[in-house]
Write a structure and sequence with these properties.
This protein is of the alpha/beta class. 22% of the residues lie in helices and 33% in strands. It has four helices and ten strands. The longest helix has 8 residues. It is globular.
């Protein structure tokens, strides 16, 4: 749903590329399932992370992986989603935290605006915390 409620500047690409930067088989399987969907009529394609320029969305599971990736992210309009504590503080856009009773998330709105992404108000209302 994060993808569904995010707007990218028009680029004319006929697909939405989701890159996966995790070694966890359960997370890989869950994210691969996105490859069977369409968001606002655009097909979603999932792949393992190779280059940031290949990604419209990237999911990162650890600070070590994020540190390697974030050094190379200048000029990209990639939605960054992380599944480790402190992801938003490290410059990521959406930090997911799993708690009893479900998932919660924080949003780094400043970083999203910096790269030209816009989050729909529906997503912002559900966030636990927004960094501006």
């Amino acid at each position: 749903n994060f993808i569904k409620f995010t707007e990218w500047p028009a680029v004319g690409d006929p697909q939405l590329r989701v890159c996966i930067a995790t070694g966890d088989a359960t997370q890989i399987a869950a994210l691969d399932a996105l490859g069977e969907r369409r968001i606002r009529g655009i097909p979603v394609v999932t792949t393992r992370f190779r280059r940031l320029s290949d990604c419209d969305v990237i999911y990162v599971d650890s600070s070590q992986r994020w540190n390697e990736i974030s050094e190379k992210r200048t000029g990209t309009r990639t939605l960054t989603i992380g599944g480790y504590p402190g992801f938003v503080a490290d410059g990521g856009m959406i930090e997911i935290s799993l708690r009893e009773g479900g998932a919660r998330f924080d949003i780094n709105l400043l970083e999203a605006k910096r790269v030209g992404l816009r989050f729909y108000p529906q997503l912002l209302r559900l966030a636990r915390r927004i960094v501006e």
